[in-house]
């Protein structure tokens, strides 16, 4: 789709740097009779420029990990560093500002504003940041996800796959230090899902981005540089180079 | 923020308004109507105050007649406008949560909302100003026929009413937007990640505290008539109903939640998809349901309180007048014949004693002059009627609580009613400042305070101080059993008399001469609330198209969806009637206890039934426009 040569102004990141690190992070939801411990002392470092998959049975805390690491939700205790910034103690507004400049997020439910066009949804991070949208980067991104001719459509006029491509382009817009994706293909059929993942991986590679993705799909996880396994809110294993059937087996064992 | 980026955010606003135009239009209409109500009453009040002759009916009655209307209209307008904005914004929670997830700060969400709210309000205010000016003109024929303004009256053009409406409405809209925005900005961005659109469940502690404060203040106001009977008590009824309703609006979601949870546990209701869904919806969307119930409850509450308290006041006036009169027969005629009538009747056989009353118009200073705003001087004077009483035998007993009525024989003296609205804190020995139709100003000394003000009027003087004009009344006490004979003989002499009981009845009915006007004004208010409530319901139903589609996908038939909406509408309608009645009752009960002997709510059953009926009909109309698709 897009070649790295077409990409401008992208600072190459070396793989030996850490993009995100979590140190002894706890997250507890005070609820009803018993509080829910969604994260119990997670310590994790994600290398810059890498693709990390997060797997685990339902309720293992995958989404919580993602939300907390991305600064969408605050930790109960522990330290989170994105790039060089400790975000665990930022105020709500400071965290939001940091997040929109340095963190990209792709949600399962696309989360496009229904009344804004594709191009306007893409420009939103710049607008929110009080900056002019970068027209060149905008067309680059639209080309990268194959939506150049749909810039003026509304989300309701897009298929699920197309909507998710817009969300991917939006996550890449501000050249964030890291992109978090929470089952980005969960709402799509397998064929579209595979195409979206290809687009995501290509874009991430082309723009030298770091990607952390929660997924249920062993095929997807098999393509990752590293797979992190979660169970009961804690990291129980990390692996690299496993095949899809091996990953599948691993998750099944954790679920027991 | 650069100009380009600001333009970008403006585009987000404009797009949002275009996407949500039906609810934006609904809110716009509500603000237009609210502004029109305020401007119309403002225009009429100001025209009355500007009237050059302070003793013309326009100056005497217009500010007072419209003032009480304006007070209620004002509370209503502010309340309804804030409710409308809150409801319209609540339906866009997900959109704002999305913005938060994409990286909008709480501050940005707040400013987006505030800009939108203020833009809509400002335009609506101007449109409402035009509509209000037109409405004031449309009321003129009715005002003329009620004798409140002179024929040929035309409202005087002025920017003040519009400015007044702006000063009151814009901050109300701003605060409503801020409160809604506060809720949105507090949303965790993760709220947008999930697809749940149900209302947030817990109420903030501040909101619960505010609800208790409003309920407490309502109770205090309810008790006012006990300490301050009379017209003040009447005003308190409406105010207490408002405060209770605001408390219900604040605590509503929690109350709805409890009621719905209770409903869903009823065995008898289980098994019907429609009822199960409807009560589950009530539980999940308790805020949305509260927003639908409260304006409708306001309709019932205000309608009941206003008519009920008015009726109670009239009844109290009749009781007081009846209690005050020891006379058996009453003659009424022009004041020129009063002296002859008195002489003839006093000399008639069988007559024990006579007393004469007449009326004089006067203005009472209620506030010291304000040199900065000379045209507002009209506000410092209140029009009043003086009862000129010549009663050496004590046939009229005003119920003196301090001083002595006999001292009225001295010139330059006055007796005042204890519950006079305009003269709080006046007592025996104080002096009033009065202005008479011929331009003279006097300051008579208060020599007595009496309690039957509703029946006898707020001021009593003797002919030594004031001369009456217009109609005169002679009260006659006869020897026991001689009433019929006296009536027959004086009738032959040219002075026909009626029994005192008949006179009391007629006097009170005459007091409600302007009841047609107050009925029309009440109907205007009720229509305003009805439109606003229907509007809120339509907005709420429209925003649920996605929910209906989802239920359709899950296999709900159109019939089931209609039934579910029907059950919900019934819940809303009946809930509104119950809450409206409950919030009106304390004010009605207090007014009755404070003012009349015997217990009476003053509610006209037919009127109450039609209010309740209208409420239920509006609740059903609100869901009638739902767009249901069996397959989506």
UniProtKB/TrEMBL annotation, chain A:
In terms of SMART domains, this protein maps to: AAA
Q: Which InterPro entries match?
A: AAA+_ATPase (IPR003593), ABC_transporter-like_ATP-bd (IPR003439), ABC_transporter-like_CS (IPR017871), ABC_transpr_LolD-like (IPR015854), MacB-like_ATP-bd (IPR017911), P-loop_NTPase (IPR027417)
GO CC term (a single one): membrane protein complex
**Locate the ABC transporter domain: which residues?**
20-254
What keywords does the record list, in alphabetical order?
Answer: ATP-binding, Nucleotide-binding, Transport
Query: What would you give as a GO molecular function for this chain, any one?
Result: ATP hydrolysis activity
Q: Which PANTHER family match?
A: ABC TRANSPORTER RELATED (PTHR24220:SF685), IMPORT ATP-BINDING PROTEIN (PTHR24220)
Q: What is this protein called?
A: ABC transporter ATP-binding protein
Instruction: Tell me the organism.
Output: Demequina activiva
Question: What's the source species' lineage?
Answer: Bacteria, Bacillati, Actinomycetota, Actinomycetes, Micrococcales
